[in-house]
Protein 1
Amino acid sequence: MVFPSKKDWWLGIVIWGAALLLIIPPILFPNFGVWMTPAFLDKQWIKVILLGSTGVILLWIWFRTNYTVKEKTLQITYGPFKKKVNIDDIRSIRQTKDPFTAPALSIDRIEINYASFKIISISPKDKQTLIQHLLQQNPNIEIK
């Protein structure tokens, strides 16, 4: 079952703003920032590829962040990146508002402790249903 990420409006502004600032200026304003451009970026096409691809990855993360529960695995997808967590290795789950980097598009998150001292925070829209699916496959998960 696939669970989409909850998305905070302010984080959308940050991601979309950064993506557009990385994609649009090198295309529309080729001489923008020439005075502060390193020598290896003298060619316009290099700027478009480097900055544009970074902007595309940000948008890819915005549109493709989700969490899939299947066959004893929680698969976390955020843009081009994927991580798998064995559900049998999950020790505990707790609510968190931790603002640090995570494959989550919201501050309203759940923190998953698994394996030996590994932690990952995710932000599914429907946290309770995701937790229920995880508990069905591993009833030993402690909910804090």
Protein 2
Amino acid sequence: MQPSESSWLKTLGRHLCNKSLYALNFCSELLITPDDTLLLSIEAYGDNKTTRKNALLHHKFLHHNLTVEASWPDLFVDDLGGYWDVPFSMAIDLASVASDSGASYHFCINHNAGQPKQHEDQLTSAVAMTLLPGLFIKNAFSFKKNVDIWRSKAPKLKMVQPFDILLSNPHISASGILGAALTACIGDNLVRSRGEDSLPFKGLTLRAPVVNSTILADIFASISLSVQYGNFQRLFLDLTRFYARLDFPSGSKFISGATHLAQDLYNSHQPSVEAIQAICPKATLSLQQQIAGPSVSELIQEWHSITRTVAGM
């Protein structure tokens, strides 16, 4: 037996001895009214003595959706992949119904109670501030505009159903989103502005240490381009689609980087990597090509930062 196989078998045996391979989940969905749905669930895993309970109420208004959810304890995952148990978490979420163009807003309240601890005694990272006890309120407003540069008016094949009705209209279109977000934290779950670091512009931040609270305001934007050829009806090569999107998640961070970069150029200094990273948006590129029938080859590439190569030039 190879050493690697022996190590793998030992690891598997240790997990089988220490963990029970079972999971129990009881879930009930109640239709209270045509517009109200109540979901109740309770679940347990293996030898873990923690039993997770969850209650979720969903209500449909004419132009809004309301969701109220409570979990005890609730399971979260941080940016580093660490799992955290929060003794009690409750959230109220009110959002306008999504539309292709026009204004929309999103209002959310989240309350955490009790000190979080890492799931199954993991030792990976410090607890995220947003998981600490306190009240978290966030309100976002955005305006979206879609522009059709070209859309095919050619008739589709008769008596032939497209493989995907959402990918059956050849077009060239662009869209843009501009919005603002206001965040308020009361308690230990204080957050920092994205513009706070070594950059000069701090964004709009109000702090009240006496009541342990913070208010943050920021803007965000996104632009995208979609190009499609083919109706996705024929058996071969009837769909070619290209999609590109640029996301600017923080206006304060962008202004910080632009200001710092302008100062470096004005003073004939080498631009800092941090400033260039701050003004570079997150880029997403997607290319889809039909091979045969419903089979589509898709390539997706994301760039969170494209500045390291540029800064080294």
Protein 3
Amino acid sequence: MTTTTICRAWAIQRRDGVVLGFTDHDARIEFDGILFRPDHGMSARALVQGSGLSVDNSEAAGALSDDAITERDLLAGLWDGATLRMWEIDWNDPRARTLIFAGSLGEVSRGNGSFRAELRGLSEPLNAAQGRVYHPRCSARLGDGCCKLDLADDRWRGTVAVEGLEEGRILRFASFGNFMRGWFERGSLLVLDGPAKGLGGVVKNDISLPGGAREIELWQAMAILPRVGDRLRLTTGCDKRADTCQKKFANFLNFRGFPHLPSEDWLMAPGAEGRNG
């Protein structure tokens, strides 16, 4: 491979299956059925890779564009956890290439019409803590393989159109079905229509107002605001308590916590050693 004809190319596959190719060469390159384009202004810093398990010291940066990397897709989380492969290539002969990085995108930040994404190597998941945590509250995520609750059931979610919006995070509705007060606290919101389609948020408060009206407050304002009339999907939340699992979801059989585990205060209380055989 001739050093004067070396360029870099990287392919990114998003969570929705879309694959995009980029290169720092001044012309298009194609191999493995992927077209690597130079016209999106995406680049990557020099890779620093070691034999340990730390995050590789590198990042990808680029410009937001209408047809490749849009601000709305970033906000919707489509690029979170996207897989990435990077090659060094002889642009005279794309068959002469070396894979120099494989991993995923980590934290993605944006601003001033551009974005930056941390690159994480294949060993990054090995840094995550393994095993279960012994805690009175449930360790499962609502609706996952351990919880086994079907969140597609209409008992756990509802669809409603926006009737009022304040500060980008407080939504108001004249009526909201038969859901109990606080039903959606700690739950999620997803926009189904309009310019904010695909964006979402986490519900902080679910407040019942006089006359059957409802107010939903998010923890953080949405970057792109839904319009009056746009539809939202609200999914219930869980506070991880055994009582909630039993009474709200009737799912105590799958509860993944230890509700009878003594607290640290109880273990340290005078005479506790005599009661703890």
